[in-house]
Write a structure and sequence with these properties.
The structure is a single chain. The protein has 456 residues and is of the alpha/beta class. The protein is built from 16 helices and 16 strands. Bound molecules: ligand F0G. Ligand F0G binds next to helix 4 and helix 5.
Length: 456
Protein backbone atom coordinates (compact mmCIF):
# COMPACT_ATOMS: atom_id res chain seq x y z
CA UNK A 1 0.00 0.00 0.00
CA UNK A 2 1.20 3.50 -0.83
CA UNK A 3 -0.89 5.19 1.86
CA UNK A 4 0.66 4.95 5.30
CA UNK A 5 -2.04 5.39 7.92
CA UNK A 6 -1.77 6.44 11.55
CA UNK A 7 -1.40 3.04 13.26
CA UNK A 8 -3.87 3.93 16.05
CA UNK A 9 -7.48 4.91 16.62
CA UNK A 10 -8.33 8.04 18.58
CA UNK A 11 -10.12 7.29 21.84
CA UNK A 12 -10.06 10.64 23.54
CA UNK A 13 -9.87 14.11 21.99
CA UNK A 14 -8.94 17.63 23.01
CA UNK A 15 -10.72 20.56 21.34
CA UNK A 16 -8.76 23.18 19.40
CA UNK A 17 -10.08 26.72 19.74
CA UNK A 18 -10.05 28.64 16.48
CA UNK A 19 -9.12 32.34 16.37
CA UNK A 20 -8.52 34.94 13.66
CA UNK A 21 -5.36 36.53 12.29
CA UNK A 22 -6.46 39.89 13.77
CA UNK A 23 -6.80 38.32 17.24
CA UNK A 24 -3.44 36.60 16.88
CA UNK A 25 -1.72 39.89 15.97
CA UNK A 26 -2.85 41.32 19.31
CA UNK A 27 -1.93 38.15 21.24
CA UNK A 28 1.56 38.12 19.75
CA UNK A 29 2.15 41.78 20.45
CA UNK A 30 1.12 41.28 24.08
CA UNK A 31 3.58 38.33 24.27
CA UNK A 32 6.40 40.57 22.94
CA UNK A 33 6.86 38.38 19.85
CA UNK A 34 7.95 35.45 22.01
CA UNK A 35 5.91 32.33 21.29
CA UNK A 36 6.87 30.82 24.66
CA UNK A 37 4.86 33.63 26.27
CA UNK A 38 1.60 32.80 24.44
CA UNK A 39 -1.18 30.82 26.12
CA UNK A 40 -1.54 27.31 24.67
CA UNK A 41 -5.27 27.83 24.19
CA UNK A 42 -4.46 30.60 21.71
CA UNK A 43 -2.51 28.18 19.49
CA UNK A 44 -4.20 26.18 16.71
CA UNK A 45 -1.40 23.77 15.78
CA UNK A 46 1.34 23.54 18.40
CA UNK A 47 4.66 22.54 16.86
CA UNK A 48 6.73 24.24 19.55
CA UNK A 49 8.12 20.94 20.70
CA UNK A 50 7.75 17.17 20.51
CA UNK A 51 8.68 17.05 24.20
CA UNK A 52 5.99 15.81 26.58
CA UNK A 53 3.31 16.69 24.02
CA UNK A 54 2.67 13.21 22.62
CA UNK A 55 -0.58 11.30 23.13
CA UNK A 56 -0.26 8.43 25.57
CA UNK A 57 -1.77 5.08 24.68
CA UNK A 58 -4.61 3.37 26.55
CA UNK A 59 -1.99 0.98 27.92
CA UNK A 60 0.06 3.87 29.31
CA UNK A 61 -3.07 5.39 30.90
CA UNK A 62 -3.90 1.99 32.39
CA UNK A 63 -0.36 2.00 33.82
CA UNK A 64 -1.08 5.40 35.36
CA UNK A 65 -3.91 3.80 37.35
CA UNK A 66 -1.58 1.01 38.48
CA UNK A 67 1.16 3.39 39.70
CA UNK A 68 2.62 2.32 43.03
CA UNK A 69 3.22 5.54 44.97
CA UNK A 70 5.36 4.03 47.74
CA UNK A 71 8.22 6.33 48.68
CA UNK A 72 10.87 3.62 48.42
CA UNK A 73 11.16 0.44 46.35
CA UNK A 74 7.83 0.75 44.52
CA UNK A 75 6.71 -1.87 42.01
CA UNK A 76 6.51 0.90 39.42
CA UNK A 77 10.21 1.66 39.88
CA UNK A 78 11.12 -2.02 39.55
CA UNK A 79 9.14 -2.18 36.30
CA UNK A 80 10.78 1.04 35.04
CA UNK A 81 14.28 -0.10 35.98
CA UNK A 82 13.84 -3.59 34.52
CA UNK A 83 12.48 -2.22 31.24
CA UNK A 84 15.41 0.20 30.85
CA UNK A 85 18.04 -2.37 31.83
CA UNK A 86 16.59 -4.85 29.39
CA UNK A 87 16.60 -2.32 26.55
CA UNK A 88 19.73 -0.31 27.24
CA UNK A 89 21.84 -2.72 29.28
CA UNK A 90 23.26 -0.27 31.84
CA UNK A 91 24.01 -1.34 35.42
CA UNK A 92 22.53 1.70 37.14
CA UNK A 93 19.28 3.47 36.27
CA UNK A 94 18.53 6.75 38.03
CA UNK A 95 15.12 8.37 37.46
CA UNK A 96 14.84 12.17 37.17
CA UNK A 97 11.90 14.48 36.55
CA UNK A 98 13.10 15.25 33.01
CA UNK A 99 16.16 15.20 30.78
CA UNK A 100 17.82 18.39 31.98
CA UNK A 101 17.71 17.18 35.59
CA UNK A 102 19.68 14.13 34.46
CA UNK A 103 22.11 16.49 32.70
CA UNK A 104 22.51 18.70 35.76
CA UNK A 105 23.25 15.71 37.99
CA UNK A 106 25.66 14.25 35.44
CA UNK A 107 27.69 17.44 34.93
CA UNK A 108 27.65 18.43 38.61
CA UNK A 109 29.26 15.08 39.44
CA UNK A 110 31.71 14.60 36.58
CA UNK A 111 32.69 18.04 35.26
CA UNK A 112 34.58 20.95 36.77
CA UNK A 113 35.87 24.39 35.95
CA UNK A 114 37.85 24.37 32.68
CA UNK A 115 36.78 20.90 31.49
CA UNK A 116 35.71 20.28 27.89
CA UNK A 117 32.85 18.06 26.74
CA UNK A 118 32.83 17.17 23.04
CA UNK A 119 29.65 16.09 21.25
CA UNK A 120 28.20 16.06 17.74
CA UNK A 121 25.94 18.94 18.84
CA UNK A 122 24.91 19.62 22.41
CA UNK A 123 21.25 20.48 22.88
CA UNK A 124 20.63 23.89 24.50
CA UNK A 125 19.88 22.58 28.02
CA UNK A 126 22.91 20.28 27.85
CA UNK A 127 25.09 23.19 26.77
CA UNK A 128 23.66 25.39 29.54
CA UNK A 129 24.23 22.71 32.20
CA UNK A 130 27.86 22.30 31.08
CA UNK A 131 28.40 26.07 31.15
CA UNK A 132 26.78 26.20 34.60
CA UNK A 133 29.76 24.23 36.03
CA UNK A 134 32.17 26.48 34.06
CA UNK A 135 33.03 23.68 31.63
CA UNK A 136 33.18 24.04 27.89
CA UNK A 137 30.66 22.37 25.51
CA UNK A 138 32.26 21.59 22.12
CA UNK A 139 30.42 20.59 18.92
CA UNK A 140 32.17 18.41 16.33
CA UNK A 141 29.35 17.65 13.91
CA UNK A 142 30.25 16.08 10.54
CA UNK A 143 30.92 18.24 7.49
CA UNK A 144 27.86 16.94 5.62
CA UNK A 145 25.64 18.58 8.25
CA UNK A 146 26.27 22.06 6.88
CA UNK A 147 24.97 21.16 3.41
CA UNK A 148 21.20 21.28 3.84
CA UNK A 149 20.62 19.86 0.37
CA UNK A 150 22.85 16.81 0.23
CA UNK A 151 21.05 13.51 0.67
CA UNK A 152 23.63 12.07 3.08
CA UNK A 153 21.46 10.00 5.44
CA UNK A 154 23.42 10.45 8.69
CA UNK A 155 24.07 14.17 9.04
CA UNK A 156 23.93 13.82 12.82
CA UNK A 157 27.29 12.03 12.83
CA UNK A 158 30.23 13.28 14.85
CA UNK A 159 33.29 14.40 12.89
CA UNK A 160 35.63 11.79 14.32
CA UNK A 161 38.76 13.38 12.78
CA UNK A 162 38.05 16.62 14.61
CA UNK A 163 37.38 14.66 17.80
CA UNK A 164 40.69 12.81 17.57
CA UNK A 165 42.63 15.97 16.68
CA UNK A 166 41.15 17.62 19.72
CA UNK A 167 41.91 14.69 22.04
CA UNK A 168 45.48 14.34 20.78
CA UNK A 169 46.25 17.88 21.93
CA UNK A 170 43.99 17.99 24.99
CA UNK A 171 44.84 17.53 28.64
CA UNK A 172 42.78 14.34 28.97
CA UNK A 173 42.20 14.89 32.68
CA UNK A 174 40.02 17.79 31.53
CA UNK A 175 37.78 15.74 29.25
CA UNK A 176 35.46 13.89 31.65
CA UNK A 177 33.17 12.37 28.99
CA UNK A 178 32.43 12.35 25.27
CA UNK A 179 28.76 12.70 24.31
CA UNK A 180 26.72 11.93 21.23
CA UNK A 181 23.16 13.19 20.75
CA UNK A 182 20.88 10.72 18.95
CA UNK A 183 19.12 11.99 16.94
CA UNK A 184 20.93 15.29 16.66
CA UNK A 185 18.19 17.77 17.57
CA UNK A 186 20.22 20.95 17.20
CA UNK A 187 21.62 19.76 13.88
CA UNK A 188 18.19 19.21 12.31
CA UNK A 189 16.89 16.05 14.01
CA UNK A 190 19.40 14.14 11.90
CA UNK A 191 20.32 10.57 12.82
CA UNK A 192 23.72 9.17 13.76
CA UNK A 193 24.83 5.95 12.07
CA UNK A 194 25.76 2.81 14.00
CA UNK A 195 29.18 3.03 12.39
CA UNK A 196 29.68 6.51 13.81
CA UNK A 197 28.49 5.45 17.29
CA UNK A 198 30.96 2.57 17.08
CA UNK A 199 33.83 4.83 15.97
CA UNK A 200 33.22 7.42 18.67
CA UNK A 201 33.09 4.64 21.25
CA UNK A 202 36.38 3.24 19.93
CA UNK A 203 38.06 6.65 20.19
CA UNK A 204 36.65 7.14 23.69
CA UNK A 205 38.11 3.78 24.75
CA UNK A 206 41.48 4.58 23.16
CA UNK A 207 41.74 7.76 25.24
CA UNK A 208 40.11 6.11 28.27
CA UNK A 209 37.23 8.57 28.43
CA UNK A 210 33.66 7.45 29.27
CA UNK A 211 31.20 7.73 26.39
CA UNK A 212 27.59 8.87 26.97
CA UNK A 213 24.61 9.05 24.66
CA UNK A 214 22.06 11.84 24.94
CA UNK A 215 19.43 9.37 23.88
CA UNK A 216 16.05 11.20 23.96
CA UNK A 217 15.18 10.05 20.44
CA UNK A 218 16.96 6.70 20.40
CA UNK A 219 14.13 4.79 18.68
CA UNK A 220 13.78 7.26 15.81
CA UNK A 221 17.55 7.04 15.38
CA UNK A 222 17.35 3.23 15.35
CA UNK A 223 14.69 3.31 12.64
CA UNK A 224 16.94 5.42 10.40
CA UNK A 225 19.75 2.92 10.95
CA UNK A 226 17.37 0.14 9.95
CA UNK A 227 16.25 1.75 6.71
CA UNK A 228 19.46 3.52 5.66
CA UNK A 229 22.49 1.68 7.02
CA UNK A 230 23.88 -1.38 5.33
CA UNK A 231 23.30 -4.61 7.18
CA UNK A 232 20.37 -3.57 9.40
CA UNK A 233 17.36 -3.95 7.11
CA UNK A 234 16.36 -7.27 8.68
CA UNK A 235 17.40 -6.47 12.24
CA UNK A 236 14.52 -5.88 14.71
CA UNK A 237 14.44 -2.32 16.12
CA UNK A 238 14.98 -3.58 19.65
CA UNK A 239 18.23 -5.28 18.65
CA UNK A 240 19.42 -2.12 16.89
CA UNK A 241 18.66 -0.12 20.03
CA UNK A 242 20.49 -2.66 22.19
CA UNK A 243 23.51 -2.48 19.91
CA UNK A 244 23.52 1.35 19.98
CA UNK A 245 23.60 1.38 23.77
CA UNK A 246 26.12 -1.46 23.99
CA UNK A 247 28.85 0.95 22.83
CA UNK A 248 28.13 3.52 25.58
CA UNK A 249 29.12 3.75 29.25
CA UNK A 250 26.06 5.75 30.18
CA UNK A 251 23.29 7.97 28.91
CA UNK A 252 20.95 10.83 29.71
CA UNK A 253 17.38 10.53 28.48
CA UNK A 254 14.39 12.83 28.41
CA UNK A 255 11.42 10.44 28.59
CA UNK A 256 9.27 13.22 27.11
CA UNK A 257 10.40 12.23 23.62
CA UNK A 258 10.78 8.56 22.66
CA UNK A 259 9.23 7.26 25.90
CA UNK A 260 6.07 9.11 24.72
CA UNK A 261 5.39 10.26 28.28
CA UNK A 262 4.30 13.72 29.40
CA UNK A 263 7.08 13.99 31.96
CA UNK A 264 10.14 12.02 33.03
CA UNK A 265 13.78 11.34 32.40
CA UNK A 266 16.63 9.16 33.54
CA UNK A 267 20.36 8.84 33.81
CA UNK A 268 22.25 5.57 33.36
CA UNK A 269 25.81 4.54 34.05
CA UNK A 270 27.87 1.40 34.31
CA UNK A 271 30.14 3.04 36.90
CA UNK A 272 28.89 2.01 40.37
CA UNK A 273 30.82 4.57 42.40
CA UNK A 274 29.73 7.40 40.09
CA UNK A 275 26.15 6.15 40.34
CA UNK A 276 26.39 6.47 44.11
CA UNK A 277 27.55 10.10 43.83
CA UNK A 278 24.74 10.84 41.38
CA UNK A 279 22.18 9.25 43.69
CA UNK A 280 23.45 11.34 46.63
CA UNK A 281 22.85 14.48 44.61
CA UNK A 282 19.51 13.09 43.40
CA UNK A 283 18.34 12.69 46.99
CA UNK A 284 19.29 16.27 47.68
CA UNK A 285 17.45 17.80 44.73
CA UNK A 286 15.10 15.36 42.95
CA UNK A 287 14.02 12.64 45.38
CA UNK A 288 14.79 9.15 46.62
CA UNK A 289 16.54 7.01 43.95
CA UNK A 290 13.45 4.86 43.35
CA UNK A 291 11.32 7.78 42.23
CA UNK A 292 13.71 10.69 41.46
CA UNK A 293 11.14 13.46 41.22
CA UNK A 294 8.53 11.35 39.45
CA UNK A 295 5.38 9.69 40.75
CA UNK A 296 4.93 5.93 40.46
CA UNK A 297 2.34 6.49 37.74
CA UNK A 298 4.86 8.48 35.68
CA UNK A 299 7.36 5.61 35.95
CA UNK A 300 4.69 3.23 34.60
CA UNK A 301 3.86 5.53 31.67
CA UNK A 302 7.55 5.83 30.76
CA UNK A 303 8.13 2.07 30.92
CA UNK A 304 5.16 1.26 28.67
CA UNK A 305 6.14 4.10 26.31
CA UNK A 306 9.65 2.67 25.96
CA UNK A 307 8.11 -0.62 24.81
CA UNK A 308 5.58 0.93 22.41
CA UNK A 309 8.11 3.18 20.72
CA UNK A 310 9.94 0.10 19.43
CA UNK A 311 6.93 -1.02 17.37
CA UNK A 312 7.94 -0.84 13.75
CA UNK A 313 4.52 0.22 12.43
CA UNK A 314 4.63 3.16 14.81
CA UNK A 315 8.17 4.19 13.78
CA UNK A 316 7.38 3.85 10.09
CA UNK A 317 4.33 6.12 10.47
CA UNK A 318 6.35 8.54 12.60
CA UNK A 319 9.26 8.94 10.19
CA UNK A 320 7.07 8.88 7.06
CA UNK A 321 4.68 11.53 8.39
CA UNK A 322 7.58 13.86 9.17
CA UNK A 323 8.86 13.22 5.66
CA UNK A 324 5.39 13.99 4.24
CA UNK A 325 5.52 17.52 5.65
CA UNK A 326 9.08 17.93 4.36
CA UNK A 327 8.16 16.82 0.85
CA UNK A 328 5.23 19.25 0.71
CA UNK A 329 7.47 22.14 1.78
CA UNK A 330 10.10 21.08 -0.74
CA UNK A 331 7.46 21.18 -3.46
CA UNK A 332 6.64 24.77 -2.44
CA UNK A 333 10.37 25.59 -2.75
CA UNK A 334 10.56 26.46 0.92
CA UNK A 335 14.16 25.78 1.98
CA UNK A 336 14.38 23.05 4.65
CA UNK A 337 17.07 20.72 5.95
CA UNK A 338 17.06 17.64 3.74
CA UNK A 339 16.76 14.76 4.12
CA UNK A 340 14.07 15.17 6.75
CA UNK A 341 14.93 13.97 10.24
CA UNK A 342 12.86 12.15 12.84
CA UNK A 343 10.88 14.53 14.98
CA UNK A 344 10.80 17.82 13.14
CA UNK A 345 11.19 19.83 9.96
CA UNK A 346 13.69 22.67 10.04
CA UNK A 347 13.12 25.64 7.74
CA UNK A 348 16.25 27.56 6.74
CA UNK A 349 15.07 31.07 7.60
CA UNK A 350 18.32 32.70 6.44
CA UNK A 351 17.59 31.46 2.95
CA UNK A 352 13.81 31.89 3.11
CA UNK A 353 14.01 35.51 4.34
CA UNK A 354 17.33 36.73 2.85
CA UNK A 355 16.35 40.38 3.35
CA UNK A 356 16.43 40.02 7.16
CA UNK A 357 19.99 40.19 8.60
CA UNK A 358 20.91 37.76 11.41
CA UNK A 359 20.94 40.58 13.97
CA UNK A 360 17.22 40.98 13.28
CA UNK A 361 16.44 37.30 13.92
CA UNK A 362 15.01 35.94 10.63
CA UNK A 363 14.05 32.65 12.34
CA UNK A 364 12.03 34.35 15.04
CA UNK A 365 10.45 36.67 12.45
CA UNK A 366 9.27 33.65 10.45
CA UNK A 367 8.01 31.85 13.56
CA UNK A 368 5.96 34.94 14.45
CA UNK A 369 4.52 35.13 10.94
CA UNK A 370 3.45 31.47 11.10
CA UNK A 371 1.60 32.26 14.28
CA UNK A 372 -0.15 35.29 12.83
CA UNK A 373 -1.15 33.63 9.56
CA UNK A 374 -2.10 30.19 10.87
CA UNK A 375 -1.99 30.08 14.67
CA UNK A 376 0.96 27.71 14.26
CA UNK A 377 3.50 27.76 17.06
CA UNK A 378 7.07 26.70 16.24
CA UNK A 379 10.46 27.43 17.71
CA UNK A 380 13.41 29.40 16.50
CA UNK A 381 16.71 27.51 16.56
CA UNK A 382 19.01 30.32 15.60
CA UNK A 383 20.54 33.43 17.07
CA UNK A 384 17.79 34.05 19.61
CA UNK A 385 18.47 30.58 21.06
CA UNK A 386 22.21 30.27 20.49
CA UNK A 387 23.39 33.86 20.11
CA UNK A 388 24.10 36.25 22.95
CA UNK A 389 26.69 38.69 24.20
CA UNK A 390 30.29 37.81 25.07
CA UNK A 391 32.07 38.92 28.23
CA UNK A 392 32.90 42.27 26.56
CA UNK A 393 29.27 42.85 25.71
CA UNK A 394 29.75 42.17 21.99
CA UNK A 395 26.93 40.26 20.32
CA UNK A 396 27.57 36.89 18.68
CA UNK A 397 25.26 34.92 16.40
CA UNK A 398 24.37 31.34 15.57
CA UNK A 399 25.76 29.65 12.47
CA UNK A 400 22.25 28.74 11.30
CA UNK A 401 18.91 30.51 11.51
CA UNK A 402 16.33 27.74 11.60
CA UNK A 403 12.66 27.42 12.46
CA UNK A 404 11.73 24.04 13.85
CA UNK A 405 8.34 22.50 13.21
CA UNK A 406 8.44 19.79 15.88
CA UNK A 407 5.79 17.13 15.51
CA UNK A 408 4.26 15.77 18.71
CA UNK A 409 3.95 11.97 18.73
CA UNK A 410 0.55 10.44 17.82
CA UNK A 411 -1.15 13.85 18.26
CA UNK A 412 -1.93 15.47 14.90
CA UNK A 413 -3.47 13.89 11.81
CA UNK A 414 -2.63 14.40 8.16
CA UNK A 415 -5.22 17.16 7.74
CA UNK A 416 -3.55 19.18 10.49
CA UNK A 417 -0.30 18.86 8.57
CA UNK A 418 -2.03 19.82 5.28
CA UNK A 419 -3.25 22.96 7.02
CA UNK A 420 0.35 23.82 8.02
CA UNK A 421 1.41 23.37 4.39
CA UNK A 422 -1.36 25.70 3.18
CA UNK A 423 -0.29 28.39 5.68
CA UNK A 424 3.32 28.07 4.51
CA UNK A 425 2.19 28.57 0.91
CA UNK A 426 0.49 31.85 1.92
CA UNK A 427 3.61 33.00 3.77
CA UNK A 428 5.85 32.10 0.85
CA UNK A 429 3.92 34.46 -1.43
CA UNK A 430 4.52 37.45 0.83
CA UNK A 431 7.81 36.47 2.43
CA UNK A 432 9.63 39.59 1.16
CA UNK A 433 7.32 41.76 3.28
CA UNK A 434 8.13 40.06 6.60
CA UNK A 435 10.04 42.35 8.97
CA UNK A 436 12.82 41.54 11.45
CA UNK A 437 12.85 41.90 15.24
CA UNK A 438 15.04 43.40 17.94
CA UNK A 439 15.47 42.31 21.57
CA UNK A 440 14.23 44.70 24.25
CA UNK A 441 14.75 42.32 27.22
CA UNK A 442 16.92 39.20 27.65
CA UNK A 443 18.03 36.98 30.55
CA UNK A 444 21.56 35.70 31.14
CA UNK A 445 20.98 32.02 30.25
CA UNK A 446 18.56 30.35 27.82
CA UNK A 447 17.33 33.78 26.78
CA UNK A 448 14.92 32.53 24.12
CA UNK A 449 12.45 31.32 26.77
CA UNK A 450 11.82 34.77 28.24
CA UNK A 451 13.19 37.36 25.80
CA UNK A 452 10.95 40.23 24.75
CA UNK A 453 11.19 41.43 21.15
CA UNK A 454 9.87 44.32 19.12
CA UNK A 455 9.18 44.47 15.40
CA UNK A 456 11.56 46.72 13.46
N1 LIG B 1 18.61 16.56 24.99
C1 LIG B 1 17.96 16.75 23.82
C2 LIG B 1 18.58 16.25 22.55
C3 LIG B 1 16.72 17.38 23.82
O1 LIG B 1 16.09 17.55 22.66
C4 LIG B 1 16.16 17.82 25.04
C5 LIG B 1 14.89 18.51 25.08
C6 LIG B 1 16.87 17.59 26.23
C7 LIG B 1 18.09 16.96 26.16
C8 LIG B 1 16.33 18.03 27.57
O2 LIG B 1 15.25 17.27 27.97
O3 LIG B 1 13.32 18.84 28.06
O4 LIG B 1 13.27 16.67 29.28
O5 LIG B 1 14.69 18.50 30.06
N2 LIG B 1 14.35 18.98 24.06
C9 LIG B 1 13.07 19.64 23.99
C10 LIG B 1 12.87 20.14 22.60
C11 LIG B 1 12.82 20.67 25.05
O6 LIG B 1 11.90 20.89 22.38
O7 LIG B 1 13.64 19.78 21.70
P1 LIG B 1 14.08 17.86 28.88
Amino acid sequence: MKTIIEPFRIKSVEPIKMNTAEQREVILKEAFNNLFLIKAKDVIIDLLTDSGTGAMSSRQWAGVMLGDESYAGSDSFIFFETTIKNLMGFKNVIPTHQGRAAERILFSTIAKDGDSIPSNNHFDTTRANILEVNANPIDFVCEEASDFNSDFPFKGNMNTDMLENFLRKADLSKVPIIMLTVTNNTGGGQPVSMENIKQVSKIAKKYNIPFYLDACRFAENAYFIKINEKGYMDTPIKEIVQEMFSYADGCTVSAKKDAIANIGGFLCTNDDSLAQKKKDLLILTEGFPTYGGLSGRDLEAVAYGLMEVLEEDYLKYRIESTKYLGEKLNSLNIPIINPTGGHAIYIDAKKFLPHIPVEHFPGQALACQMYIDGGIRTSEIGSLMFGGNDSNGNPFYSKNELVRLAIPRRTYTQSHIDYVVEVMGIIKDKSHKIKGLKIIYESRTLRHFTAKLERI
